[in-house]
Design goal:
The structure holds 2 protein chains of 2 kinds. Chain A has 11 helices and 4 strands. Chain A has helices at residues 9-40, 47-65, 69-90, 100-122, 148-170, 172-182, 184-189, 194-216, 226-241, 246-266, 274-285; strands at residues 3-4, 7-8, 138-140, 145-147. In chain A, the strands form 2 sheets. Chain A has a two-stranded antiparallel sheet. Chain A has a two-stranded antiparallel ribbon with strand order 3-4. In chain A, helix 1 (9-40) packs parallel to helix 5 (148-170). The longest helix of chain A is centred in the first third of the chain and has 32 residues, at 9-40. Chain B folds into 2 domains: 2-145 and 280-350, Rossmann fold (3-Layer(aba) Sandwich), CATH 3.40.50; 148-274 and 357-381, Response regulator (Rossmann fold). In chain B, strand 6, helix 6 (174-189) and strand 7 (193-200) form a beta-alpha-beta unit. The relative contact order of chain B is 0.13. The chains are: A mainly alpha, B alpha/beta.
């Protein structure tokens, strides 16, 4: 049997695939953060809470409307996006002229309130959400037994990331968006409704978080703390990739998922810290992140 | 509103009894627990509510000459925060006893402060056997359960059912290490073997990597030496990855709230050890129903244990008519614990309250007849067998008296 530092290769491949699954969640979440930061200059600390809201909405939609996973996949991100639009219109827009810190504090406060609300309503033990029938079961890959649902997560996340990258980098709408990021006043002067674009961008960014929440719902207990457990790692991913870099955040998310997977093979105790060690090293060598540019 | 009632009671009793020797004529209980984190469902507000019930019942039945006050705070599962809060309570709030203390690290931190200030620590939620062994002291009582008791019940039963080879998935902190150590001891002692261990950061959300390792170890039984949401996610993901039912899971520390949250479909047929179950007899049902009416959930053993512990403490204070730590402790140790929670429970010199434990078998969905009907009592483990015998104690207090 072929070995790699004492680990049989099939086991190693298995762990890498699992790392990739986690990397996909990091990628979708950090993509949303990067889009929001790039456009609004807001460090969105409510992202984890809105991810949780996405998963909770999926549960609520099943419980009270009787609609299954596929409906949730459509409705929950829309719902979270709508909440995002309200947050942007009512609260965030007053902070654009101020220091980053204010946006961070506001969104952090919102996150605590949303988590507190759900904790009060449902407790922390969480609620069960089943894997949809179409995706239950597993695929034999030879070296491992991969649940179909995890394969679907990889496919769906990569499709969403690619779609978002294409929309922003290759379409006319994306060009307006990038122009508005570079120079909002001039873009506005060309007759483009910049405040509307900003609002929709925030809605879209948090909608991505909602989508990640629905994707995660069948794999873990759906509960108020699921976001706060994840969000700090996701922020580290964004910092490593470079704040605001779309492609950077996606690639870094996937890459760090893989590195985390490898850490779980060789020294599992460090798997929660390895991302931060990498962050410290990257910040020492490249303070703007791997894919970031000086503004 | 509740605070107002308590304040009124204080005013009423102060005038009634000037002769009592309880300092300031007030006994003050501080409930320090996880109000918002991973363990807040199995302890948290439910533990505070159970303590309130204990205080109310004590006042109504015993008509004490002193007042009883209650304060509570969230320790966020952090040791440093807990010891600071305990210090503040002892020094400034004149708290006589700090209680609950889920999460071993918080319990160990507060025990030290209690010893330094010569006040009581009454532990219900924390699990590690370190509390009554290496770190034991004479101001602490460990009430409800410990890692030895739950490991002893569950691991022994599973090995005897034929689950000889084990792999542990362990939460990487004091509690997880303690649970793993006690469980593997039981497995080995009963003729089983341990094939491997993996330690995961606390709290975790993705356990698939660890489960895959457990899967490839080929062990018959995967022992989950973790708790709360970690255990729940492990069980859920084990089913997803096809680990179960080929290999079986042993939840080494599970609470009824975990079973409730996961549902019987994914937990059926598991073995677990509890110090209390609401549906044991008329007495437990009566108390639990009162608790349910206030909390809309059935109590965990930690919450029921809080009522028992606080009631025993308050009775001891009344009996010696003093809140002096050593006098109260001596009285508590002298008196057997007899209530709906424990029959003939006894507090040993190492601080361990020993009482019967129950080996439970989780029912299948179609066997569950009414809400919260989750367990079948497989075996009552008598107090003498349930806890670590004093002969194996690593507590210095015990060695001193033995030599």
């Amino acid at each position: 049997m072929t070995d790699f530092f004492g680990i049989p290769l099939p086991a190693l491949f298995g762990q890498l695939v699992l790392g990739l699954v986690n990397g996909c969640f990091y990628a979708v979440l950090s993509l949303g953060l990067a889009v929001i930061f790039g456009m609004l200059n807001i460090i969105n600390f409510a992202h984890g809470a809105l991810y949780m809201v996405g998963a909770m909405l999926a549960w609520l939609i099943l419980e009270y409307l009787g609609l299954g996973y596929w409906w949730s996949l459509l409705l929950a991100p829309l719902g979270v996006g709508l909440i995002g639009i309200l947050i942007e219109r009512l609260l965030l827009r007053w902070l654009y002229q101020l220091d980053h810190l204010y946006g961070l504090l506001l969104t952090f406060g919102l996150a605590l309130m949303v988590e507190g609300l759900f904790r009060d309503l449902y407790g922390v033990a969480g609620l069960p959400y089943a894997i949809p029938d179409e995706l239950s079961g597993a695929i034999g890959l030879g070296f491992m037994f991969l649940p179909k649902y995890r394969a679907w997560v990889i496919f769906a996340s990569l499709a969403v990331c690619l779609g978002t990258w294409f929309a922003i980098e290759k379409t006319r709408l994306g060009a307006y968006l990038r122009a508005a990021t570079e120079n909002p006043k001039l873009t506005q002067a060309f007759g483009i409704n910049v405040p509307l674009m900003v609002m929709l961008t925030y809605g879209f960014g948090v909608g991505l978080a909602g989508l990640a929440g629905v994707l995660a719902a069948p794999t873990t207990q759906v509960g108020p703390l699921m976001g706060s457990n994840l969000i700090i790692t996701v922020f580290a991913v964004v910092v490593i990739g470079g704040m605001g870099s779309i492609l950077g955040s996606v690639l870094t998310g996937l890459g760090l998922g893989l590195i985390e997977g490898l850490t779980k093979v060789f020294y599992p105790e460090a798997s929660a810290t390895v991302v931060f060690i990498i962050m410290a090293i990257v910040l020492m060598v490249r303070p703007t992140g791997l894919f970031g540019r000086e503004k | 509103m509740k605070m107002k009632c308590i304040a009124l009671a204080v005013a009423a009793t102060i005038s009634a009894s000037a002769q009592a020797q309880v300092s300031d004529n007030v006994v003050k209980i501080g409930v320090l627990t996880d109000m918002s984190g991973a363990y807040s469902d199995l302890s948290g507000l439910g533990a505070v509510e159970a303590t309130k019930m204990a205080v109310e019942d004590f006042k109504a039945k015993e008509k004490p000459a002193f007042a009883v006050e209650l304060i509570s705070a969230d320790h966020q599962n952090k040791g440093d925060l807990s010891s600071n809060k305990a210090r503040e309570w002892f020094d400034r709030e004149k708290v006589d006893v700090v209680t609950e203390l889920v999460t071993t690290s918080t319990a160990l931190a507060v025990m030290k402060v209690a010893k330094e200030k010569n006040k009581l620590a009454l532990i219900s939620g924390a699990a590690s056997t370190r509390i009554t062994n290496e770190d034991c002291n004479d101001v602490t009582v460990h009430w409800t359960y410990d890692t030895y008791a739950v490991a002893n019940g569950t691991a022994k039963a599973v090995v005897q059912q034929g689950g000889k080879s084990w792999f542990f998935i362990t939460a990487d902190y004091a509690f997880g290490h303690s649970l793993e150590k006690d469980s593997s001891g039981v497995v080995l002692a009963n003729g089983g073997k341990v094939l491997g261990t993996v330690r995961h950061p606390f709290p975790g959300s993705d356990f698939s990597s660890f489960l895959l390792k457990a899967q490839s170890s080929g062990a018959q039984v995967i022992g989950l030496a973790n708790a709360g949401t970690d255990t729940m996610n492990s069980i859920k993901q084990a089913a997803e990855f096809g680990v179960t039912p080929k290999q079986s899971l042993a939840g080494l520390l599970m609470f009824i709230t975990d079973i409730h949250a996961l549902g019987l479909k994914s937990t059926q047929n598991m073995y677990l050890t509890e110090g209390f179950y609401w549906d044991l007899n008329d007495e437990t049902r009566a108390w639990s129903k009162r608790y349910f009416d206030r909390q809309k959930k059935m109590p965990t053993m930690i919450q029921a244990g809080m009522y028992s512990a606080v009631t025993h403490y308050l009775k001891a204070v009344k009996a010696v008519n003093s809140d002096d730590t050593q006098k109260v402790m001596a009285q508590m140790k002298k008196t057997p614990v007899n209530d709906f929670f424990a029959k003939n429970g006894k507090i040993r010199d190492d601080g361990r309250m020993v009482h019967d434990m129950y080996l439970m078998h989780v029912k299948k969905p179609d066997e569950s007849k009414y809400a919260w009907d989750y367990y079948r009592v497989k075996q009552t483990i008598p107090a003498a067998e349930a806890f670590q015998p004093l002969s194996a104690s690593r507590c210095p207090l015990i060695k001193k008296t033995a030599s």
